[in-house]
Amino acid sequence: MSQLNIDTIQNRSGGPVTLTSQVADRYYGRWDGSATYSVNSSLNQSSVTDSTNGASTAAFTNNFADTSYAPFAFSSNDRAQRLWAQMDGNFGGTPNNYGILSTSQFAFYVGDEASTVQDVYLNVARAVGDLA
């Protein structure tokens, strides 16, 4: 059986290897948005705060280069209920700036089928894009 052990891969001139057609998360956050409000795991997340019922604000450790990054949001609770989750740039407590993002943070909203925002225990957000 063959085994390859390496610490660093470099290009021919000694610099970092350029990977083509590769996309990786530049941000990932998972937090409990219920009464405990705690971060379970994260990458490039400096903080998550409870803005109001059903709304959070998450800040990046390293900003994105522009607002063209691609966000993904997911939420769940312990009931058999359909929820929606949204990431946008409105920090006023109500989701309405659909698709408007900030390079340093985002607003995260969770609601139910009746469009009522609510706190839930599982919130997940991811984003792909270039960092500044």
SS-based class: mainly beta
**How many beta-strand segments?**
8
Main sheet: strands, sense, barrel: 4 strands, antiparallel
Q: Helical amount among residues, as a percent range?
A: under 10%
Unreliable spans: none
Instruction: State the domain count.
Output: 1
Strand content: 35-45%
**Major sheet: arrangement of strands:** 2-1-8-5
How many DSSP H or I helices?
Answer: 0
Could you report the average pLDDT, rounded to the nearest whole number? 82
- What's the gyration radius in Å? 18 Å
Topology as a string of helices (H) and strands (E): EEEEEEEE
Question: What is the 3D form?
Answer: elongated
Amino- and carboxy-terminal Cα gap: 43 Å
Outline the fold blueprint.
Blueprint: E1 27-32, E2 38-43, E3 45-52, E4 55-60, E5 70-76, E6 83-88, E7 105-112, E8 122-128
Antiparallel strand pairs: 1-2, 1-8, 3-4, 4-7, 5-8, 6-7
Overview of the molecule:
- The mean pLDDT is about 80.
- The protein has no helices and 8 strands.
- The N and C termini lie far apart (about 45 Å).
- The strands form 2 sheets. It has a 4-stranded antiparallel sheet, with no helix packed on it.
- With about 130 residues, the chain is mainly β.
- The chain has strands spanning about 25-30, 40-45, 45-50, 55-60, 70-75, 85-90, 105-110, 120-130.
- The chain has one domain.
- The radius of gyration is 18 Å and the shape is elongated.
- Strand 3 and strand 4 (about 55-60) form a beta hairpin.
